[in-house]
Every structure is written in C-alpha cells, then in structure tokens.
From TrEMBL:
Record-linked Pfam families: IU_nuc_hydro (PF01156)
InterPro entries to which the protein is assigned, alphabetical: Inosine/uridine_hydrolase_dom, IUN_hydrolase, Ribo_hydro-like
Biological source species: Orchesella dallaii
Family the entry assigns: Belongs to the IUNH family.
UniProt lineage: Eukaryota, Metazoa, Ecdysozoa, Arthropoda, Hexapoda
Superkingdom field: Eukaryota
Protein name in the entry: Inosine/uridine-preferring nucleoside hydrolase domain-containing protein
Residue stretches making up the Inosine/uridine-preferring nucleoside hydrolase domain: 10-314
Length: 333
C-alpha cells in the first residue's frame, strides 16, 4: 500500500479491545512496510475496554499474531484521573476485551517471550516526547488517562508532541455507552477535559463516534469478504469477534472498528471526506451528559478552535485498507 506524507514516529495509546486490535493491525502493517514513513516507537496501555493488565496481554497477542517483536509495550493507568470507573453489565468486547479468546487452546498466534517495559506509560510518553521533539505522533484509542497524566507531570509535553489523533467523544450528542456519551470519554471525562483544555495549537485531530457510525460496513462484507481472507490475522479476528458479530448485527445491522477509522485517518489523510475545526470541550457535571463533548457551533465562547473534527471518511477506501492489511502476505511468518 502507498502511505503518503513525511516520516512519522508514532505511539499508540490503547485500551485493546477487539476494536483496537483492528487498528493495531492497520498500524503494524504500515510499521512493517519498509516503504512506509510510519514507525511505531511504543505502544502504551490504558484501562478502558478491560483492565490495563488484560490490555497489555491483548496487545502482546496482536504483536504475536503480526510476528513483530521490536515495539516496546508500556503499562499505564488502571484507574481514571478522578472518579472511579465502575463497570456495569457485560463489557462490549467481553470481560478480557478480547471476547474470551485467551482460554482457547488453539489461538492462531506464535507466542513470543515478551516482557512489559518497567517504565510506566505516562513517564514513557513524557520521555519519548522529549526525545523525539516535534516528530512524535500519538494516536489515542482509549480513555485519555495516560495523556492527561503526561500533561500534568511535564509542562512541555504538549509542546513536544507534533500531533495527537483521538478516537473518542462525539459532536452531535450521539452516544454508545449512554444516550449522549461516547465510551472513551465516559470512562474518564476529566482526562478528556485536561487533554482538550491544553494548548495544542490545533494539533488535535478527533475522530468522534458520529464519524464512525457513518463508516460502517455491511455484515455481509465483514463475513464474506474480510472474514473469508485466509490469513492467521483474519483467523484471529474472526475468533475475537465470534460472539460479537451477532451483537453488531442486532445493535447496528452493520460492522465497524471505530479505532480503525481513526488509524486510517492518520495513515491515509485522503480517506477523510469531510472535516471541520471548532472549539471543543467536555461536560463534567451533567447528570446525563458527563463526558459528552460540547462543540461551540454558534461560536459563543470566543475560544480559538482547538480541534480538527473528522466528520466523515470514504468507506470504500477504509475497506480497501483493511483488505490489504489482513491479506495473507502482509504479516508472513
Ligand atoms: Ca479503544
């Protein structure tokens, strides 16, 4: 695949998550391609879809599946910044975030002897942002907790980072975990607030829930086209989503990986068909809206625009990226 743009050092902050796994595979394909300008220099784990320990294990499973061993993994926050996150009911991606696959005897991955880095994720973010000053891209696929901690412990962190891509929040009050709240911002509203309130000088690109809902593939495409590719990565993905495809079918009638939409926007900017800039912040008090993004559509705050909002992408291009990523030749082992 052709990846446009300048050389980029990338950190992926993730709460993996089946959704994140799809995005990680997209990014790992770019990392592995010698012609690509993308180099993943770290993966940092944060709570969200499951506990941070499960997230670390899930990241290792994806790396094992891709046969990639040169990316360090850092464990981060297991609690939100201020208020505890109380899980209710059954998590969307299962208790372990990976549909319970770790209990399967024949997981299609070649397990490597991997160890977590000793440094914690927020400290690693601070250090790497200093080390790769003005070169570093961060992609946040989970709650913003690690980022908010990094911002709070280093006044220069935001300045050092070149750009931040966030999957999270919403722009029209459409929610998934609550009527008007998106999951990542719901888990840790204060962290999202800290991130959006910092002086990024328009370096934030946000992929809200609404953009993902406009990028849903048919269940037929998921099952018959993506799902029928003969590769170990699709074999794994099908196992991860074995119980989930019925949930997608019932709830949405279609399939999407929100995190993959965000990753695709970074890897291939031309995939964006509609975007805008605006001032965005996060509601922290509302009984029904804590964690909802507030967009200053009428320009009443006088605050400068702080976010580039991705409103829509070209779905056929995303599907093509997914097909070429999950093709049998991408991660030959
Ligand atoms: Ca995620």
């Amino acid at each position: 695949m052709n990846y446009p743009g300048p050389q980029r050092k990338v950190i992926i902050d993730t709460d993996a998550g089946v959704d994140d796994a799809v995005a990680l595979f997209l990014a790992l394909a770019a990392h592995k391609d010698p012609k690509s300008p993308f180099e993943i220099i770290a993966i940092t784990a944060v709570l969200g879809n499951t506990t941070v320990d499960n997230v670390c294990r899930n990241v290792f499973t994806v790396l094992d599946s891709a046969g990639i061993s040169n990316i360090p993994v850092f464990c981060g926050a297991d609690n939100p910044l201020v208020q505890p996150f109380i899980r209710e009911g059954s998590p969307f991606f299962g208790e372990d975030g990976f549909g319970g696959v770790h209990s399967l005897p024949n997981l299609p991955v070649t397990k490597q002897d991997r160890k977590l880095e000793e440094e914690s994720a927020p400290l690693a973010l601070v250090r790497l942002a200093r080390e790769f000053q003005d070169e570093l891209t961060i992609v946040a696929l989970g709650p913003c907790t690690n980022l908010a901690i990094a911002i709070n412990i280093d006044p220069n962190f935001v300045k050092n980072v070149k750009e931040l891509y966030i999957m999270g929040g919403n722009i029209h009050g459409v929610g998934n975990i609550r009527p008007s709240i998106e999951f990542n911002f719901f888990v840790d509203p204060e962290s999202a607030f800290v991130v959006l309130s910092s002086s990024w000088n328009q370096k934030i690109v946000m992929v809200p829930l609404e953009a993902c809902k406009l990028a849903m593939s048919s269940m037929e495409w998921r099952r018959q086209v993506l799902g029928s590719i003969k590769s170990r990565q699709v074999e794994l993905l099908n196992l991860l989503e074995e119980k989930l495809v019925h949930v997608y079918e019932k709830q949405y009638g279609s399939w999407c990986s929100c995190d993959a939409v965000c990753m695709a926007v970074l890897l291939k900017p031309s995939i964006t068909s509609k975007s805008s800039t605006n001032y965005c912040t996060v509601e922290l008090q509302g009984a029904l809206t804590r964690g909802q993004v507030v967009v200053d559509y009428p320009q009443r705050t006088g605050n400068p625009h702080n976010v580039t909002i991705i409103e829509q992408i070209y779905l056929p291009e995303l599907e093509q990226m997914l097909l070429s990523t999950f093709h049998e030749s991408t991660f030959i082992q």
